[in-house]
Amino acid sequence: MRERLGYLLKRCSNLKQVATAHGSMVRTALDHDKLLLGQFIETCSSLGLSAYAHSVFAVTPQHHRHTYVFNTMIKALTLSNSAFEALLVYKSMGRAELQPDCYSFPFALKAVVDLRALSLGTQIHSQTIRTGLDSNIHVVSALIQMYSSCACILDAQKVFDDMPLTSVSSDDVVVWCAMIAGYVKVGDPDNAMDLLDRMPQTRTHGAVLVSWTSVIAGYAQMGRPNESIAVFRRMWLKNVEADEIAMLAVLSACAQLGAMHVQLGECIHGYILKRGFDRMAPLKNALMEMYSNSGNITNALQVFENMTHRTVVSWTTIISALAFHGLGTQALDMFSRMEIAQIKPNDITFIAVLSACTHVGLLDLGHYYFNAMSYKYGIQPGIQHYGCMIDLLGRAGYLAEAVELVRRMPFQPNEAIWGSLLSASNIHGDAELGELALLNLIELEPWNSGNYALLSNIFASAGRWDKSVMARKLMRKKGVRKTPGWSYVQASNEAHEFIAGDTSHPQFEMIHDMLFNMSEQIKISHCIPVNEFDELLDF
Mean per-residue pLDDT for 436-445? Predict the structure, then answer.
């Protein structure tokens, strides 16, 4: 009978069938059987019925409960985003006079991560020491994940360092992966890369790939795309075959660099087609963003048109790409296609749509979409949507209306909104509005030299030279330095960043000598006035 009920539970696909199976367990007095009860909880969990499983578990007499049943219940509640209830079940193990095992602790620590309950996590850590399980691979990994998720990376490193040396082997690479992911999580990809270099060799391809991917994504998330791509190249040279997650990570880095690494992006596109990953919408979305940022909107459109399954992210990405390239009319046409396809837009979609209206200068249409967000689509405009409308009004010359919208919106204006008003005042020569915008920008971003310079130009254009000089003096008084210009140059498949006044580049002397020689040659040929090129040498 037990085997028959076990088979029945495996075949359940809805609440009615689960309830019938549970009724059969009760009638046959097998509702307290630990294996069947555990299987019942797992079935409920897989069907999203963890609350039902918890209600059955709660009325089960304590003497019929087993560690396996507790573990299954904790896991089910954690997976259903019921972390608080999962920790209550974990705590009740003590009242049932049961001791947690190497499965109990990882499930409970996962619940701690969800709640960011560091104090509970440290208590569970103490319990792992008392039970002698603090050196168990799965427990150590869970502790590292818990501490790093709570931004306590030094505690995570101590747990890692305290592992017995006999445990640090190629079979236990999961602990190394957890520590690498921990450093990435707290925004320290350099230490993650150092660990990856020291990680023992293993034949477990999946674990190794996860660690490489984690570091690649970590550098990209920290705005260091060159390092991200360099790590990807190293992974490739070590014959670690990339999967779709690794492709997403490196495409993100390529998108940040734009045209500087479009060739690598194209190679990745070819690899995606070769591996059959081209049916995956997230990869197609990343490819569109990469092509858009590199200036190739044609390829971005081609990727979109070849998609068989388009999500709201896909539509939003291509609308944003078209708007970014100044193709506002095409972006709005694409939004119309999205509506015809009955794909419901989200708040990000409307940022792209309103940006498109701004690029084309379609004020009335912008107003329509802004108002339609709430009454037609049930989306309340956020501060970015208000920012788009204020920018649209400002560019169109409706400065009073833009200021009125700032006053009426249910948010405190941020630097982007005041920046839009400052820019609009520059376009339309409204010095008073420019002064108001700058006073607010000084509070929000006092370090931004561009704001002072723009206001100075506004006053100068209006012939108010005293005010223009005052803006420059205010900038110096506050100790604000002009942000140096910078540029990227690609050479030998590597992007080099150059900042005005910076001498830290390893080939600085060679570059400076070359520029000097070029300057001398140009002087001789009289191609341009001497003083124009000399500015390039003013490092």
Answer: 79
Residue 366 has pLDDT above 90, yes or no: yes
- Percent of the chain residues past pLDDT 70, beyond the cut: 84
**Cα–Cα dist 412/467, whole Å:** 28
Residue 456 burial (C-beta neighbours within 10 Å; 0-12, 13-18, 19+): buried
Cα–Cα distance measured from residue 157 to residue 399, given in angstroms and rounded to the nearest whole number: 55
Q: Residue 49 CA to chain centroid, in angstroms?
A: 30
336: nearest Cα among 318, 359, 360, 309: 318
Q: What are phi and psi of 290, to 5 degrees?
A: -65, -50
User: Could you give the CA distance from residue 467 to residue 458 in angstroms, rounded to a whole number?
Assistant: 9
pTM of the entire structure?
A: 0.73
Separate counts of helices (H) and strands (E) for the chain? 30, 2
The answer to whether the CB of 159 falls within 8 A of the CB of 144 is yes
Q: Under 8 Å CB-to-CB from 92, ≥6 apart: which residues?
A: 70
Name the CA radius of gyration of the chain, rounded: 30
* CA gap 185, 64 in Å, rounded: 41
Lowest mean pLDDT among 113-127, 167-181, 189-203: 167-181
Report residue 325 as tokens: 């390239």
Contact at 8 Å (CB) between 373 and 362? no
Residue 486 pairs in a beta bridge with 499
Check: CB of residue 41 under 8 Å from CB of residue 7: no
167-to-101, 136, 204, 340 alpha-carbon distances in Å: 19, 9, 16, 59
Q: Which residues pair with 497 in a beta bridge?
A: 488
Distance CA(94)–CA(99), nearest Å, equals 7
| pLDDT band (50, 70, 90) for residue 526 | low
Task: Quote the CA–CA distance of 216 and 245 in Å, as a whole number.
Answer: 10
Write the DSSP assignment of 144-183 as a string of letters.
HHHHHHTT-HHHHHHHHHTS-GGG-SGGGHHHHHHHHHHH
Q: Provide the terminal-to-terminal Cα distance of the chain, rounded to the nearest Å.
A: 85
- Mean of the pLDDT values across residues 122-135? 93
- Average pLDDT over the chain reads 84
The tokens describing 65, both together, are 């409960």
Q: What is the pLDDT of residues 228-261, one digit of tens each?
A: 989 998 998 888 888 888 889 988 888 888 766 6
Q: Which of 153, 133, 135 is nearest to 144 (CA)?
A: 153
Nearest to 334 by CA among 347, 313, 355, 319: 319
